[in-house]
């Protein structure tokens, strides 16, 4: 299981997190209003029975990586660039 490039902890700011995020995620708060969604994803996968050594996180922050589309970066820079990302999932049984 791999977590693709996504908004990294240094840019995952949620000023209104108490109304936007469930309280169960508040323990992943790493700054005044910043959250580590990579750790949240890891925990969720482990809670569903995925073994830790089967989980990989790309740790590529789409906000800071110019090669990735980031709505948040575009909004902050007033560029309003429209981009697309896709995630594909597959379950393989042996």
The residue ranges in which pLDDT falls below 50 over 5 or more consecutive positions are: none
Rg, rounded, reads 15 Å
Spatial shape:
globular
**Helix/strand order, N-terminal first:** EHHEH
First-last Cα distance: 15 Å
Q: What does the oligomeric state look like here?
A: single chain
Strand segment tally: 2
Mean pLDDT rating: 83
Instruction: Estimate the strand proportion.
Output: under 5%
Molecular structure report:
With 94 residues, the protein is mostly helical. The protein has a domain at 2-61. 22% of the residues lie in helices and 4% in strands. It is built from 3 helices and 2 strands; from the N terminus they run βααβα. The protein has helices at 17-20, 37-47, 71-76; strands at 2-3, 56-57. The protein has a two-stranded parallel ribbon with strand order 1-2. It is globular. The mean pLDDT is 83.
List the topology elements.
Layout: E1 2-3, H1 17-20, H2 37-47, E2 56-57, H3 71-76
Parallel strand pairs: 1-2
Give me a quick take on this structure.
The protein has 94 residues and is mostly helical. 22% of the residues lie in helices and 4% in strands. It has a domain at 2-61.
């Amino acid at each position: 299981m791999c977590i693709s490039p996504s908004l990294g902890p240094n840019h995952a700011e949620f000023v209104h997190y108490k109304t936007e995020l469930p309280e169960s995620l508040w323990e992943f708060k790493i700054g005044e209003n910043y959250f580590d969604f990579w750790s949240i994803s890891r925990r969720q996968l482990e809670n569903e029975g995925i073994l830790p050594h089967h989980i990989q996180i790309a740790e590529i922050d789409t906000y800071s990586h110019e090669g990735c589309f980031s709505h948040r970066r575009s909004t902050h820079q007033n560029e309003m660039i429209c981009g697309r990302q896709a995630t594909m999932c597959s379950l393989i049984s042996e």
